[in-house]
Automatic annotation (TrEMBL):
<protein>
    <recommendedName>
        <fullName>VWFA domain-containing protein</fullName>
    </recommendedName>
</protein>
């Protein structure tokens, strides 16, 4: 079933991101979940990522546990758990030593109200998301202080359409990249005569939001 495949894809992406990121930053990565208070700090390897997910799954019966399913409060969780919870406090302390890369792994269309709340300066619930985060960080850290990668697992067509909209937003699209599930990305590259390997797909996932040349690789006519 695709649901099981999505979970395995999520685990694969998280483990590979942890391994690759540690090549550039000895501190490892921070992990936050949309629907849970479980946190992972200093995740440096595939083993660390697997241990975090195992620990989180064991707590799934409790209020703070992680369950793979439910709603997708993308804007709300980005605001509370990532920006307000980590990035903006660090910026206020002058503790951001390098630009921040936020990687969101999701399988569904957002359930925020409105659905494009993550693009707005202020969502209905008062959440300041991508536009506002950039505006607040830029005076101290320059025009590209933060970048956002949205990685899709599964084949949900509405999720794909939403992520494509994010990628091409005229206001903040330059700091956003959206990477579809491997098979769809491979189709996009094949139209240009390029055979996409899993390794190249993971590389795009890691640097697409930072390097515009990677972001543009899969933006064929159907995604413009």
């Amino acid at each position: 079933m695709e649901g099981g495949e999505r979970i395995e894809d999520l685990k694969l992406i998280l483990s590979r991101v942890a391994e690759i990121a540690t090549l550039f930053d000895d501190d490892g990565i921070l992990v936050r979940f949309m629907n849970s208070n479980v946190e992972g700090n200093g995740i440096r390897s595939a083993a660390d990522a697997a241990a975090l997910l195992t620990k989180a799954s064991r707590r799934a019966g409790a209020a703070a546990g992680v369950t793979f399913g439910g709603t997708t409060p993308l804007a709300a969780s980005m605001h509370s758990r990532v920006l307000q919870g980590v990035v903006l406090p660090a910026a206020a302390r002058g503790a951001l030593a390098k630009p921040v890369l936020v990687i969101s792994i999701t399988d569904g269309e957002p359930t925020d109200t409105p659905k494009d709340a993550i693009l707005q300066a202020r969502a209905r619930a008062g959440a300041r998301v991508i536009r506002d985060a950039r505006a607040r960080l830029a005076p101290q850290y320059g025009p590209r202080p933060i970048a956002f990668q949205f990685a899709q697992v599964g084949r949900d067509a509405r999720a794909q359409a939403f992520l494509s909209k994010l990628d091409q937003d005229p206001g903040v699209g330059d700091i956003i990249d959206c990477t579809s599930y491997f098979e769809l990305e491979a189709e996009e590259f094949a139209r240009k005569g390029v055979n996409l390997s899993v390794e190249a797909w993971l590389l795009k996932l890691m640097v697409g939001a930072i390097d515009p040349s990677y972001d543009a690789e899969d933006e064929g006519p159907q995604r413009r």
